[in-house]
Each structure stands twice: as structure tokens, then as C-alpha cells.
Amino acid sequence: MLSQRSLEAFRAVIECGTVSGAAENLHVSQPAVSRLIKDLEDRTGLQLFTRFGGKIVPTPEARELAIEIDRSFIGLSAIEKAARDIKVGKRSTISISAMPAIAHSVLSDTLVSYQRERPDFRVSLQSMQTHNVVRKVATRASQLGFTSPTHHEYDVDLIRTIKLPYCCILREGHELTAKAELSFDDFGGQNVVAFERSTATGTMMERAFAQMTNPPEITVSTHLSTLVSGLVLRGMGISIVDPFTAAAHRAQGGIVRPFTDAAEFSLAIIRPRGQSLGPDLSAFLEQFERELVPYKDGQ
After folding, report:
1. What would the pLDDT profile of 101-150 be if each residue is shown by its tens digit?
2. Is the alpha carbon torsion for 68, 60, 44, 48 positive or negative?
């Protein structure tokens, strides 16, 4: 195995052009540098230097080797710099898991805004179903989770729960677009794109529709909010969604109306059991709260 010290000696001789200069830079004796170079030649089987006019000259093989060694040392320098940055708080990497509606909207906006202030900030963001978010946080694979309220409090710590208004989404030209706001009463007899019962919104819709004397017809159900919006835009029906999905639906040319019934969309922010947030995650959550403000009016 090649020794780090012999590689340092070789690099120093290449840079200085003399053994004496290399010895001075490395704070060792000239014979010590010569021994390190000889050891490197023995281990590689290469002749690295020749003498010409009283000077040592790198061989072509030495110049090729020097290129690879430089790459290695540059990599080590980058690692050392990263370690220094982490120590003084200039660089941070956090892992976040979130339900798709959050990951693709307000959370992405938060990342963009936060990184503007912290260009060295690094994050791993994963979008997944709510039960997988809980699993990721519970196993400490993620430091922060954005999900529906969970009953797994023994696995995770709840940072806070946020209540937001639901919205109704429709296609341009639908008869209900004439109304300024909608309620469950307006869903009677309508075609509906529903969320699956495995989701909090799906459970809410199923319970409400079960109590109606004239329930709507569920044409299709899915667990993905982007699919709900896409199917509504294609005329499959109307739906009730979180304000993040509603904003994306409007951006795609869809129609959004406030939902006046008491149901609210709940967002839980969780962390691994017993783990503190630290300054980076705390600052990130403060930025998240600022990005959340436009979604709170249900329009």
C-alpha cells in the first residue's frame, strides 16, 4: 500500500523542483525526502526522477502519476474544507420527508427561499405517502416530516399541527363555477374525483358522503393529489382538496372555490422521538411558516 507521507514527498518535489525545497516545505531532512521517494518508486515499480545537470527531473511516468495524486489531494482538501464549514455552521445537510401535496408546493418554495440566504445549505427531500413519512422519521432516516396527523406518537415527536381550509376544485365551464363558494350540499348528484380512504382527506369525504341523502358518484379515487387535480381538469368530476393542491390546480387553468363546511385539512410536522431541532431546522421551519401564509385564506 502506498503511504500518504511518500505521496506528499513526491508532490512536494514535483512542485519545488528540488529535494531540498521539498524538505523545507515538509519540515524534514533531505535524506528523509529521498527515502520516501525511493519507497514510492519501490512500491510502484516506476522510476520517478532522473538526474540531469545536477538537478532531478521528473520522468514522463512521474508526470502522469502527479496528475492522479493532485486529484486525490484536491479531494482531500475539499473534505477538509467541508469539515471546517460544518464545524462553524457554514454548511448543513438535513433530510426531509413529506406528503406529495406539501413537497411539491410550499415545501419547495421554502427550500428556494431558505437557500437564497444559506447557499451552502444542503437538503435531501423525499415525497411519499403519509404512512411512509412517519416510518422515515420514526427510523431516523429523516430529520423532519410533513404529514397527516398520526397515531404513532410513541415513535415520533409532534412539533405542531396546522389547520388549513379545504378548497373545492372544478373544471372551467362546470355548472358549479357560477357559485362563489361551495359546501357538501352542492356535491349531491355530482361526479367526484375522490381520495382513497387510506388518506385523511379520503376518510373525511367518505364519511361526509355517507351521511348525504343524495350522495355524489365517485368516478375514480387515488391517493395522489396531483392526479385528483389532473382528473378534475379532464372532466372526470369535482373534488375537495388541500389549499396546496388547489393553488397548483388554479395554475393549470382550473377553477377553485372556497369550501364552507367545517372540515379542515390538518398538517402535522414531526421529528424523530427525543431529537432536538437544532438551529438549522428551527430556521427552516420559521421560513416554512412565512411561505405558508398565502395558503391560509382558502381562496
Report:
1. 899 899 999 999 988 887 777 788 899 888 889 888 988 888 999 998 87
2. negative
Find cell 416510518 and name the residue.
135
User: What residues contact residue 50 under an 8 Å CB cut-off, 6+ apart?
Assistant: 56, 57, 59
Inter-residue contact 246 to 256 (CB < 8 Å): yes
Beta bridge pairs of residue 168: 240, 257
Q: What count of Cα atoms within 13 Å lies in the side-chain half-sphere of residue 218?
A: 15
Instruction: Give the DSSP H/E element, type plus range, for residue 283.
Output: helix 278-292
Which residues have C-beta within 8 Å of that of residue 265, sequence separation ≥ 6? Answer: 163, 164, 165, 166, 200, 201, 242, 243
Higher pLDDT, 120 or 30: 30
Pairing of strands 191-195, 255-258: unpaired
Where are the strands (E) in 112-216, listed by range? 121-127, 144-147, 156-165, 167-170, 191-195
* pLDDT surpasses 60 at 90: no
Burial of 103 (0-12, 13-18, 19+ CB in 10 A): buried
Question: Using one digit for the tens of pLDDT, what is the confidence trace for 162-198?
Answer: 999 999 999 999 999 999 999 999 999 999 999 998 8
Which amino acid is it at 224?
A: L
Q: Average pLDDT for residues 226-242, to the nearest whole number?
A: 94
- Whole-angstrom Cα distance, residue 285 to residue 146? 11
Q: What is the pLDDT of residue 65?
A: 86
